[in-house]
Design brief:
The protein is mostly helical. The protein has one domain (10-140): Four Helix Bundle (Hemerythrin (Met), subunit A). It has helices spanning 10-21, 29-66, 70-86, 90-104, 109-140. Helix 2 (29-66) runs antiparallel to helix 5 (109-140), helix 3 packs antiparallel against helix 4 (90-104) and helix 4 runs antiparallel to helix 5 (109-140). The longest helix has 38 residues, at 29-66. The radius of gyration is 18 Å and the shape is elongated.
Protein backbone atom coordinates (compact mmCIF):
# COMPACT_ATOMS: atom_id res chain seq x y z
CA UNK A 1 0.00 0.00 0.00
CA UNK A 2 1.41 3.36 -1.02
CA UNK A 3 2.35 6.03 1.53
CA UNK A 4 0.78 8.51 -0.86
CA UNK A 5 -2.66 6.99 -0.76
CA UNK A 6 -5.61 9.36 -1.09
CA UNK A 7 -7.33 9.63 2.29
CA UNK A 8 -10.55 7.64 2.22
CA UNK A 9 -12.05 9.89 4.89
CA UNK A 10 -11.46 13.20 3.08
CA UNK A 11 -15.17 13.87 2.82
CA UNK A 12 -15.74 13.22 6.55
CA UNK A 13 -13.00 15.76 7.35
CA UNK A 14 -14.68 18.25 5.07
CA UNK A 15 -18.00 17.44 6.70
CA UNK A 16 -16.53 18.24 10.14
CA UNK A 17 -15.22 21.55 8.80
CA UNK A 18 -18.65 22.37 7.39
CA UNK A 19 -20.37 21.52 10.68
CA UNK A 20 -17.91 23.78 12.53
CA UNK A 21 -18.88 26.58 10.16
CA UNK A 22 -22.49 26.32 11.28
CA UNK A 23 -21.79 26.11 15.05
CA UNK A 24 -23.83 28.64 16.97
CA UNK A 25 -25.95 29.47 13.94
CA UNK A 26 -29.36 28.31 12.94
CA UNK A 27 -28.61 24.96 11.32
CA UNK A 28 -29.92 24.69 7.77
CA UNK A 29 -29.54 21.18 6.29
CA UNK A 30 -29.94 22.45 2.71
CA UNK A 31 -26.95 24.77 3.17
CA UNK A 32 -24.93 21.93 4.70
CA UNK A 33 -25.71 19.67 1.74
CA UNK A 34 -24.75 22.42 -0.70
CA UNK A 35 -21.46 22.98 1.16
CA UNK A 36 -20.70 19.23 1.10
CA UNK A 37 -21.40 19.00 -2.62
CA UNK A 38 -19.24 22.04 -3.33
CA UNK A 39 -16.40 20.71 -1.15
CA UNK A 40 -16.57 17.35 -2.90
CA UNK A 41 -16.62 19.05 -6.29
CA UNK A 42 -13.59 21.13 -5.32
CA UNK A 43 -11.69 18.00 -4.26
CA UNK A 44 -12.63 16.25 -7.50
CA UNK A 45 -11.43 19.29 -9.48
CA UNK A 46 -8.07 19.42 -7.64
CA UNK A 47 -7.52 15.70 -8.20
CA UNK A 48 -8.56 15.99 -11.85
CA UNK A 49 -6.07 18.80 -12.39
CA UNK A 50 -3.31 16.73 -10.80
CA UNK A 51 -4.17 13.73 -13.00
CA UNK A 52 -4.05 15.99 -16.08
CA UNK A 53 -0.97 18.07 -15.24
CA UNK A 54 1.44 15.84 -13.30
CA UNK A 55 2.31 13.52 -16.23
CA UNK A 56 2.92 16.54 -18.49
CA UNK A 57 5.27 18.15 -15.96
CA UNK A 58 7.14 14.87 -15.45
CA UNK A 59 7.56 14.45 -19.21
CA UNK A 60 8.89 18.02 -19.43
CA UNK A 61 11.37 17.33 -16.60
CA UNK A 62 12.55 14.12 -18.20
CA UNK A 63 13.05 15.68 -21.62
CA UNK A 64 14.96 18.62 -20.17
CA UNK A 65 17.15 16.32 -18.04
CA UNK A 66 18.08 14.37 -21.19
CA UNK A 67 19.29 17.65 -22.72
CA UNK A 68 21.15 18.56 -19.50
CA UNK A 69 18.97 21.65 -19.18
CA UNK A 70 19.15 21.79 -15.39
CA UNK A 71 17.48 25.21 -15.12
CA UNK A 72 14.41 23.98 -16.98
CA UNK A 73 14.28 20.83 -14.82
CA UNK A 74 14.50 22.97 -11.68
CA UNK A 75 11.74 25.26 -12.93
CA UNK A 76 9.42 22.37 -13.86
CA UNK A 77 10.14 20.59 -10.56
CA UNK A 78 9.44 23.75 -8.59
CA UNK A 79 6.15 24.24 -10.43
CA UNK A 80 5.09 20.61 -9.93
CA UNK A 81 6.16 20.51 -6.28
CA UNK A 82 3.12 22.49 -5.16
CA UNK A 83 0.75 19.94 -6.75
CA UNK A 84 2.28 17.11 -4.73
CA UNK A 85 2.55 19.08 -1.51
CA UNK A 86 -1.00 20.43 -1.70
CA UNK A 87 -2.34 16.88 -1.93
CA UNK A 88 -0.05 15.80 0.94
CA UNK A 89 1.70 13.18 -1.17
CA UNK A 90 4.67 12.99 1.19
CA UNK A 91 6.85 10.41 -0.55
CA UNK A 92 6.33 12.06 -3.93
CA UNK A 93 6.94 15.51 -2.43
CA UNK A 94 10.26 14.33 -1.02
CA UNK A 95 11.26 13.00 -4.45
CA UNK A 96 10.34 16.21 -6.25
CA UNK A 97 12.26 18.30 -3.70
CA UNK A 98 15.27 16.05 -4.32
CA UNK A 99 14.89 16.50 -8.10
CA UNK A 100 14.75 20.25 -7.66
CA UNK A 101 17.85 20.15 -5.42
CA UNK A 102 19.79 17.99 -7.89
CA UNK A 103 18.85 20.37 -10.71
CA UNK A 104 19.97 23.43 -8.71
CA UNK A 105 23.26 21.69 -7.94
CA UNK A 106 23.52 20.65 -11.61
CA UNK A 107 24.25 17.05 -10.66
CA UNK A 108 24.67 14.45 -13.38
CA UNK A 109 21.70 14.00 -15.67
CA UNK A 110 21.66 10.20 -15.21
CA UNK A 111 20.95 10.54 -11.47
CA UNK A 112 18.36 13.18 -12.18
CA UNK A 113 16.64 10.98 -14.76
CA UNK A 114 16.61 8.09 -12.30
CA UNK A 115 14.81 10.25 -9.72
CA UNK A 116 12.36 11.52 -12.33
CA UNK A 117 11.63 7.92 -13.38
CA UNK A 118 11.01 6.95 -9.73
CA UNK A 119 8.62 9.88 -9.38
CA UNK A 120 6.90 8.97 -12.66
CA UNK A 121 6.32 5.41 -11.45
CA UNK A 122 5.00 6.60 -8.10
CA UNK A 123 2.81 9.21 -9.79
CA UNK A 124 1.33 6.53 -12.05
CA UNK A 125 0.34 4.53 -8.96
CA UNK A 126 -1.07 7.63 -7.28
CA UNK A 127 -3.13 8.50 -10.37
CA UNK A 128 -4.69 5.02 -10.39
CA UNK A 129 -5.70 5.48 -6.75
CA UNK A 130 -6.95 8.99 -7.44
CA UNK A 131 -9.10 7.82 -10.33
CA UNK A 132 -10.66 5.24 -8.02
CA UNK A 133 -11.29 7.91 -5.36
CA UNK A 134 -12.80 10.34 -7.85
CA UNK A 135 -15.11 7.63 -9.14
CA UNK A 136 -16.22 6.86 -5.56
CA UNK A 137 -16.86 10.56 -4.86
CA UNK A 138 -18.89 10.89 -8.03
CA UNK A 139 -21.00 7.85 -7.11
CA UNK A 140 -21.86 9.42 -3.74
CA UNK A 141 -23.42 12.48 -5.40
Amino acid sequence: MSEDRIPQKASSFQSAQIKDKFKGEHFKPDELMAEKIMAGSFLVEIISQFIKNAPQELKKMSEQAEYHNFDAVRSAAHKAKSMYMYLKLHKASALIRKIEKYAVEKRDAASLLQLINQLSTLTGQIIIEMNNSVNQLRKKK
